[in-house]
Amino acid sequence: MRARESAIVPVATHELEARKVLLFDQKENSVRVRLPRPVCMHGGLPLRADHDYAQINAMQAVHLYNTSTSVLANGSLSLMEGGRFVSQVDLTPLFPNEDALIP
Question: Rounded to whole angstroms, how far apart are CA atoms 45 and 30?
């Protein structure tokens, strides 16, 4: 490898059960979005009312299940989907048959 390049070097490889979920945490990811009100008709001309605001508090996450017989120790976890790198997170120990939410 050349200077300033990086690579994913697998120490252990396990295919685990996982599914995509939405994670709600109002403290972490509160976003204010503008929702348009319906258009009202007056004399055949459209009149647009003011907009309402709403809070959306969700982010994508992975619900990971350790279906292996190995303890997944502290370290860096690389998530791959269809052979493509998706994310890299720090992992706390995960024993067999335990699960974790990975943001």
Answer: 36
